[in-house]
């Protein structure tokens, strides 16, 4: 049976009548085509039902919000490999189809569609207050990327313009099959051409398995150990979760961190595995590093000075890389240096993690929001003027050097009482972190240069990494000479 038309469209059709045989024939042909299409829809889905009730005018339509249950009951057609809709695919719940991207954010949808041609689209769910969701069509157009919330009329039917259907499957099929625009403005028509599959980093939360006990706590929730099976292989995970699923601020911070990590690929940066896109709480999936954080590891294990310098070089290499990508970390500390152990449980590599506070594409960053500032690792200009730059990351790295050679102790633990103002006054008066006897003299000099009160006088991370490499090479040469 044919799709239902709005009252506006019916009135328009009824007012245009002709006594000519040619126009009557044209009308009959059109009706036959519509009937044929209705039979096709009915054959494929078995769910499109006719109705003599017309769709009310849009300005009189009460659009209801779709709930999670609505989405699970809705149906779409699975796209073929070339992105076209295959009309012969069996009907399945919406969540089964790869071009349904769940609760992926507007920003992430735009990132997915950015490099595609006009007509490429995806379907997603947009979160609303409470437990409700709106179903959204995100589509690449000639002028950019547009987002159309798919309304539902009083009778529970989905529609874009003139035609209403009882399920999303039929709505998309009609507009795709007949190349009918999803918009009807005079100079702006948008057509469905290719459906975009979910990306490698989008996961259903039911794919993720978590252990009961958290590894630690973050700003907005806990971090759990878990796993996900990818192409038959088990991937161990560190999973960042939200304590409150309705916390939009926390959710956006998690998603923003994931966006940054998607752009970073380096041996000394924690790898992003993916993000859950189901309508439940958002989770960020990171590779699991079996050694944990360096501050905790150093409290329990003795490492040689050379091993510490090698691991510091790993951290410096990771920071050097993110600086080359125009990223300022803003939260560098030993706790955010994760350790990978080899098969003999010996330290193999350090990776930088926790990009929740990072900023991109700025030389100098200023903000008045300093609630989560890591005071003990912050440079003087940060404490005084709320300013961050790559040189403030260099200062923080010097504090990491101190942590590595003080068994993960708390920086400035000797300052009591402690506050940002007290620390700033101490630093301005020449107070600094002290070296330890096991530190190489050149490492002491390097740490001091990174702790220069004048940010312009601090070295770059490229320079820091190069000096660490020289130190490591010289220590190897010295050991070989001593053993000869």
TrEMBL record:
<comment type="similarity">
    <text>Belongs to the protein kinase superfamily. Tyr protein kinase family.</text>
</comment>
<feature type="domain" description="Protein kinase">
    <location>
        <begin position="209"/>
        <end position="472"/>
    </location>
</feature>
<feature type="binding site">
    <location>
        <position position="240"/>
    </location>
    <ligand>
        <name>ATP</name>
    </ligand>
</feature>
<dbReference type="InterPro" id="IPR035849">
    <property type="entry name" value="Fes/Fps/Fer_SH2"/>
</dbReference>
<feature type="domain" description="SH2">
    <location>
        <begin position="99"/>
        <end position="196"/>
    </location>
</feature>
<keyword id="KW-0547">Nucleotide-binding</keyword>
<keyword id="KW-0808">Transferase</keyword>
<dbReference type="InterPro" id="IPR020635">
    <property type="entry name" value="Tyr_kinase_cat_dom"/>
</dbReference>
<dbReference type="InterPro" id="IPR000980">
    <property type="entry name" value="SH2"/>
</dbReference>
<dbReference type="InterPro" id="IPR050198">
    <property type="entry name" value="Non-receptor_tyrosine_kinases"/>
</dbReference>
<keyword id="KW-0829">Tyrosine-protein kinase</keyword>
<dbReference type="Pfam" id="PF07714">
    <property type="entry name" value="PK_Tyr_Ser-Thr"/>
</dbReference>
<protein>
    <recommendedName>
        <fullName>Tyrosine-protein kinase</fullName>
        <ecNumber>2.7.10.2</ecNumber>
    </recommendedName>
</protein>
<feature type="region of interest" description="Disordered">
    <location>
        <begin position="1"/>
        <end position="36"/>
    </location>
</feature>
<dbReference type="InterPro" id="IPR001245">
    <property type="entry name" value="Ser-Thr/Tyr_kinase_cat_dom"/>
</dbReference>
<dbReference type="Pfam" id="PF00017">
    <property type="entry name" value="SH2"/>
</dbReference>
<keyword id="KW-0418">Kinase</keyword>
<dbReference type="GO" id="GO:0005524">
    <property type="term" value="F:ATP binding"/>
</dbReference>
<dbReference type="InterPro" id="IPR036860">
    <property type="entry name" value="SH2_dom_sf"/>
</dbReference>
<dbReference type="InterPro" id="IPR011009">
    <property type="entry name" value="Kinase-like_dom_sf"/>
</dbReference>
<keyword id="KW-0067">ATP-binding</keyword>
<feature type="compositionally biased region" description="Basic and acidic residues">
    <location>
        <begin position="7"/>
        <end position="32"/>
    </location>
</feature>
<dbReference type="InterPro" id="IPR017441">
    <property type="entry name" value="Protein_kinase_ATP_BS"/>
</dbReference>
<dbReference type="GO" id="GO:0004715">
    <property type="term" value="F:non-membrane spanning protein tyrosine kinase activity"/>
</dbReference>
<dbReference type="InterPro" id="IPR008266">
    <property type="entry name" value="Tyr_kinase_AS"/>
</dbReference>
<keyword id="KW-0727">SH2 domain</keyword>
<dbReference type="InterPro" id="IPR000719">
    <property type="entry name" value="Prot_kinase_dom"/>
</dbReference>
